[in-house]
Design goal:
The complex is a heterotrimer of chains A (325), B (439) and C (365).
Chain A lengths: L2 E2 L1 H15 L3 E5 L15 H5 L4 E3 L4 H12 L4 E5 L10 H8 L2 H4 L9 E6 L14 H5 L5 E3 L4 H13 L4 E6 L8 E2 L14 E4 L4 E5 L3 H14 L4 E5 L2 E3 L3 H11 L2 E5 L7 H13 L8 E4 L10 H4 L3 H13 L1
Parallel strand pairs in A: 2-3, 2-4, 4-5, 5-7, 6-7, 10-11, 10-13, 13-14
Antiparallel strand pairs in A: 1-8, 6-12, 9-11
Helix pairs in contact in A: 1-7, 3-4, 8-12, 9-10
Chain B lengths: L1 E5 L9 E7 L6 E2 L4 E6 L4 E5 L4 E6 L6 E3 L3 E6 L13 H7 L6 H4 L43 H10 L17 H18 L21 H16 L2 E9 L1 H16 L7 H14 L5 E4 L4 E4 L5 E7 L2 E3 L2 E2 L7 H17 L12 E5 L18 E14 L5 E14 L5 H16 L7
Parallel strand pairs in B: 12-15, 15-16
Antiparallel strand pairs in B: 1-8, 2-4, 2-7, 3-6, 4-5, 6-8, 9-17, 10-11, 12-13, 12-14, 16-17
Helix pairs in contact in B: 3-4, 7-8, 7-9
Chain C lengths: L34 H26 L13 H10 L6 E3 L5 H7 L3 H9 L33 H14 L5 E6 L6 H13 L3 E7 L2 E2 L2 E2 L20 E5 L3 H16 L5 E6 L18 H8 L3 H11 L5 H24 L18 H11 L1
Parallel strand pairs in C: 1-2, 2-3, 3-7, 6-7
Antiparallel strand pairs in C: 4-5
Helix pairs in contact in C: 1-2, 1-3, 1-4, 1-9, 1-10, 2-3, 2-7, 4-10, 5-6
Classes of the chains: A alpha/beta (325), B alpha+beta (439), C alpha/beta (365).
Chain lengths: 325, 439, 365
């Protein structure tokens, strides 16, 4: 099996899908000759040419709107937004046009497109290169929202997204782009279905739930806990809309103590939904309140770049609270 | 002194760089911002410049080496003027802010670094890491009068029938935990075994002098239905007496003529006839309470459940559309259902759809009783024996009259006492003027 | 890079007209449409007008909650529909464009179903009134956020260009739309890509109450085209023949691979912006009356009459036929019934996900 990091997994999967299906095209800023500012589309321009790897004008509304217009003709565009926060230039296209097309036309038209965007902090990028705006899109009916954290999942989920007949917003944790290399499945039809979580490890003392870039710190926290003889179950949600409620509830009910880790802003973040659902569905099994560890409700700071992210220290404090409760 | 210059983070998401070429030689005096080394990352190739002025003492990476961000690249000695002239840009800055979240700030992506940098909190784990034994335990109730307890402890207590207010919580703020409930459960069991009373948890009583009869079949169904009613209704009792002397006379007069039609005429059909009319006047008692959406369901029909004692246990066949039947037909139906109940030949349809129940207790004995409502119905009427009793008459004389006690148990959620008293009066008026029942 | 169209010059000072207000042919070239086609144009103008009037009635009778009147726009709207190949080319209309969809061939029953929220609407009564669509006729569903359909139209054109079959997209919008960022993004995108898209501004001089002079710093909408590397044309959008000749040429030009164009069609809306608007607050009655005098319908009727191609008897028969068609369409739209509650959970995604299933159950409980 090929060994690659997360950003290589993106270009690898795009090449694989473009070779499989002529309807798949890539468009965005700098995705052509440059291969993307993170090299997520490296090599595609040479392999597939300018008609399928389209350098667009610098306009997110144009990129997402054009992708939509192409998708109604049966194409499967994969649009790259250079940094997640730039998507707000194209927010209306994504929220008003793309997300609602199937619904408002009662299925006369569909938008089988993918919008990929690198997201997340810890890269000294300040508030316009560090944010996690996924909750906006979870709140938008009609979009699937996924956020893989490993190279293998990126392969399987990007492929699922491209093959989906619904629009998919795929967030890529950019601080993990080059952090880990691993074997990825070579099977050109390897899929990670949208809506299914991964249980990274199992333990009986506490359940840690996270997704995206925060999976790195969550796994570090799990290691630190293991050293102190606290066994954790670690769940990587991977998909936020729809999300894998059953897996979370099963472990939440079994263990009774849950800590929810996300680097997004705290209030009304996705983990608030997870906490509310756990409380609604398995309250009787809980030994402590589901407890969130999040980014702050501030703009993403520059100087305190790392402090903003929920790291092992904050995660362990939360674990302490739910264990003592 | 020497300073270590580490690989800077040259672009977002870049975690390492390859040394292409050193642009300054070892021993050279390097000026701040002078090109120092050419580094290639997978995003960009950059001339890294010296962060300060000083003597380049050593290359800590050879050309072709791949150096992770934050790892040593070069060592500087103090400059010719005796001091390194700029602040180190790497770890010192982050450590200085005091906000860095443990060691992750520097080595976030290595497998795990919990032992380095800022100490992580020590975890006190319940059970394995024992809690301080000396912690004071108190029965804590919050400002709303409910004991503090974790949800799973509430559930355990609920299932075991244990009152949380009687439990001492060992958690923070006296919060009751599952282990506290389990401890209470063990104590309760022990005390019951010792004192042979108490009902919350079935104690182990098997032994010499007892016979254990498993709860099976109808007995179990009755037990569950009774407990459901007991726990699920707000039961109240109204007891009345009726002077049924006229009814006795009327029934005695009609009994031979009924017998000619093959009907054994008891008092019950008259009482049922009166009951259907009273229920029509007070529909709230011919109703059921639906807790699922907190509504009251009023029935159009009157289907009377008749409690019948059989050898197998209590059976309640249903006399359907009782409000549509006259006394004679009611009598026939009562006979048919009671016979079928005792013979065990009731159809399933015969025991379903009741809207109000009647239990005829008087045939065996008892002055009056507290019947258990056949939930989810609104009420049940207990009919007792008709006996001659001394009664003070309107002219203050005392006469021996045929008196009947009626015990009406009702669900107070559906009806209030005053309304039920009016219902009872309505019923009694009819029984005291029985000719109207034949109309 | 881009060849200009052969018959009409872009960036002229005056809007293109081929008939005078009195109905005389004033073009420098010969009319080459046959009588049947000329009469069809009038039928569609009349159908669009009477449809608009009927939609107003439906709104005032409570059968529809909203209407964005189109009267005054019929010339350019009928021309848009008649410049493309229905079912082959794609249309990205805006909410006021029911004259476009009716002339294109979308059944009136479907349009009225959309306006009254019944199942006669092929979009399942999912949107508020005045948002028509048609899958079979490639009419992209209109949307309320102004100009948000223009970038998808550019993408549609790009897809058509890549497919190489000579299909074309035509996208219409009001003058207010040209102020939106999405509009500029789309125009630029289409210009860069040479996408076969004809952009048509139905310029009625008002974005609700805000006049054109507060909407645009340029003297005309047409000249904005220069910035995007495409030709811009002004046309009298109340002259159906001028609109048709120009659009046909630009559609065929795009079909031949010469890229996009922008048309600034001068029109006037006789009604308020919508049934929720009172236009007397911001438009003097004299101004409305002056534009009424240039009404595209009587003007075109005079043109036909002068050719001996239209009579009072034909007018009466046409009126009666359209009224009958509308009556039938309203009855059929009503008879189609309204969607069930549960239908609101369909078509959010290809398959109904678990959380929507549960929300449906909760709502229906």
């Amino acid at each position: 099996m090929p060994v690659m990091n997360l950003v290589q997994a993106v270009s690898y999967t795009l090449a694989s899908e473009m070779a499989r299906d002529e309807a798949v095209v890539v468009l965005g800023e700098d995705v052509g000759k440059r291969g993307g500012v993170f090299l997520a589309t490296e090599g595609l321009y040479d392999q597939f040419g300018p008609d399928r790897v389209i350098d667009t004008p610098l306009s997110e509304a144009g990129i997402i709107g054009a992708a939509l217009g192409m998708s109604v003709h049966g194409m499967r565009p994969v649009a790259e937004i250079q940094f997640a926060e730039y998507v707000f230039h194209g927010f209306d296209q994504l929220v008003s046009q793309v997300a609602k097309l199937r619904y408002r036309s009662a299925g006369q038209f569909t938008a089988p497109l993918v919008v990929r965007m690198p997201a997340g902090g810890g890269v000294k990028g300040g508030h316009h290169h560090s944010q996690n705006p996924e909750t906006h899109f979870v709140h938008t009916a009609g979009l699937h929202v996924v956020y893989p954290s490993t190279p293998s999942d990126t392969v399987g989920m990007l492929r699922s997204a491209i093959r989906s007949n619904d629009p998919v917003v795929l967030f890529e944790p950019k601080r993990l782009y080059r952090a880990v290399k691993e074997d990825v499945p070579e099977d050109p039809d390897h899929i990670v279905p949208v809506g299914r979580a991964a249980v990274r490890r199992e333990g009986d003392d506490v359940v840690l739930v996270s997704y995206g870039g925060s999976m790195a710190e969550t796994l570090q926290a799990a290691d630190a806990l293991a050293e102190q003889d606290v066994a954790s179950t670690v769940i990587d949600l991977r998909s936020l809309m729809p999300w894998d409620r059953d897996t979370v509830l099963e472990h939440a009910a079994r263990v009774g103590r849950v800590v929810l880790v996300s680097e997004s802003p705290h209030t009304a973040g996705f983990m608030s939904e997870v906490a509310a659902t756990i409380s609604e569905q398995v309250l009787d099994h809980l030994l402590a309140p589901p407890t969130r560890v999040s980014g702050a409700d501030t703009p993403y700071p520059y100087a305190q770049d790392r402090a903003y992210l929920p790291g092992p220290r904050r995660i362990l404090h939360a674990v302490q609270r739910v264990l003592e409760y | 002194m020497s300073r270590i210059f580490t690989m800077p983070e040259l672009a977002e998401s870049v975690v390492e760089g390859e040394v292409v070429q050193w642009l300054a030689a070892v021993g050279e005096v390097v000026q701040e911002n002078q090109p120092l080394v050419e580094v290639m990352t997978d995003k960009v190739t950059v001339e890294v410049v010296a962060p300060y002025t000083g003597v380049l003492e050593a290359h800590l990476a050879a050309e072709g080496d791949v150096v992770p961000v934050g790892q040593p690249l070069a060592r500087f000695a103090d400059g010719p003027d005796g001091a390194v002239t700029a602040v180190e840009p790497d770890a010192a800055g982050e450590a200085g802010q005091g906000e860095a979240d443990d060691g992750s700030a520097r080595t976030l992506f290595t497998a795990h670094d919990a032992g380095e940098g800022e100490a992580l909190p020590r975890i006190r784990k319940p059970g394995a890491n024992a809690r301080p034994a000396a912690r004071e335990t108190t029965a804590a109730t919050g400002p709303y009068g409910r004991p503090l307890a974790v949800p799973a402890a509430r559930r355990k207590a609920r299932e075991a029938g244990i009152d949380l207010t009687a439990i001492q919580g060992s958690g923070p703020a006296g919060r009751i935990r599952v282990s506290d409930v389990e401890a209470a459960l063990a104590r309760t069991g022990a005390s019951q075994a010792a004192t042979r009373h108490g009902t919350t948890v079935a104690p182990e009583l098997a032994g010499p002098g007892t016979t254990r009869v498993p709860l099976r079949g109808m007995r179990r169904a009755i037990a569950r239905q009774m407990m459901d009613s007991h726990l699920g209704t707000a039961r109240a009792l109204q007891v009345d007496e009726a002077d049924v002397s006229d009814l006795v006379a009327l029934r005695n007069r009609l009994k031979p003529r009924a017998a000619e039609q093959g009907v054994s005429l008891s008092y019950l059909p008259f009482i049922l006839a009166a009951l259907t009319r009273s229920l029509a006047a007070f529909p709230m008692l011919n109703a059921r309470f639906d807790a699922s959406d907190e509504s009251i369901v009023l029935h159009d029909r009157v289907n009377l459940g008749l409690a019948v004692a059989t050898d197998a246990g209590l059976v309640v066949p249903v006399l359907r559309n009782a409000d549509q039947l006259g006394v004679m037909d009611l009598a026939r139906e009562v006979t048919r259902l009671a016979t079928a109940a005792r013979d065990g030949t009731l159809d399933p349809a015969d025991v379903q759809g009741g809207t109000f129940s009647v239990t005829n207790i008087g045939t065996i004995g008892g002055l009056f009783s507290l019947p258990v409502i056949n939930a989810p119905e609104a009420a049940i009427l207990g009919v007792h024996a008709i006996k001659k009793r001394p009664v003070v008459m309107p002219d203050d004389s005392i006469a021996a009259r045929h008196m009947l006690y009626l015990s009406l148990a009702f669900d107070h959620r559906l009806a209030d006492g005053a309304e039920v008293a009016h219902f009872s009066n309505h019923l009694i008026d009819q029984l005291q003027d029985p000719e109207t029942l034949l109309l | 890079m881009i060849e200009e169209s052969s018959r009409f010059e872009p960036f002229q000072d005056e809007p293109l007209r081929v008939t005078s207000d009195e109905g005389a042919w004033i073009a420098s070239f010969d009319l080459d449409l046959d009588e049947a086609e000329l009469q069809t144009l009038y039928r569609e103008l009349k159908r669009a007008r009477k449809l608009d009037e009927r939609l107003g009635v439906l709104q005032r009778s409570g059968k529809s909650s909203f209407v964005a009147p189109s009267s005054g726009h019929e010339g350019i709207q009928v021309a848009i529909a008649k410049s493309v190949q229905a079912g082959r080319d794609w249309l990205f209309p805006y909410y006021r464009d029911y004259g476009v969809v009716s002339a294109l061939g979308v059944p009136l029953e479907e349009i009225i179903g959309q306006m009254t929220g019944t199942l006669a609407d092929p979009a399942g009564a999912r949107q508020m009134p005045s948002h028509p669509s048609s899958g079979p006729l490639n009419v992209f569903t209109a949307l309320s956020p102004i100009a948000s359909h223009v970038p998808p139209a550019a993408g549609s054109g790009l897809a058509q260009k890549l497919a190489g079959k000579g299909d074309v997209t035509i996208c219409s919008f009001g003058d207010g739309a040209t102020s939106e960022g999405d509009w500029h993004a789309a125009m630029n995108f289409a210009g860069v890509q040479g996408a076969p898209v004809v952009f048509v501004c139905e310029n009625n001089r008002y974005a609700i109450s805000v006049g054109l002079e507060k909407q645009s710093g340029s003297a005309t909408i047409a000249e904005k085209a220069r910035a995007y590397g495409m030709p811009g044309y002004q046309v009298d959008g109340m002259d159906v023949l001028a609109s048709l000749y120009l659009l046909r040429e630009l559609v065929e030009r795009a079909r031949a691979g010469f890229g996009p164009a922008l048309v600034d069609a001068s029109v006037y809306r006789y009604g308020p912006h919508s049934s929720a608007d009172d236009d007397s607050i911001y438009r003097p009655a004299e101004e409305v009356a002056a534009w009424r005098a240039r009404d595209p319908l009587p003007r075109y009727r005079r043109f036909l009459e002068q050719r001996g191609s239209w009579s009072d008897a034909q007018e009466a028969a046409l009126d009666a036929a359209i009224e009958e068609e509308l009556d039938v369409a309203v009855r059929r739209a009503e008879a189609a019934g309204v969607p069930e509650l549960g239908a609101m959970f369909e078509d959010v995604y290809e398959r109904v996900p678990w959380h929507l299933e549960e929300q449906r159950e909760e709502m229906e409980r």
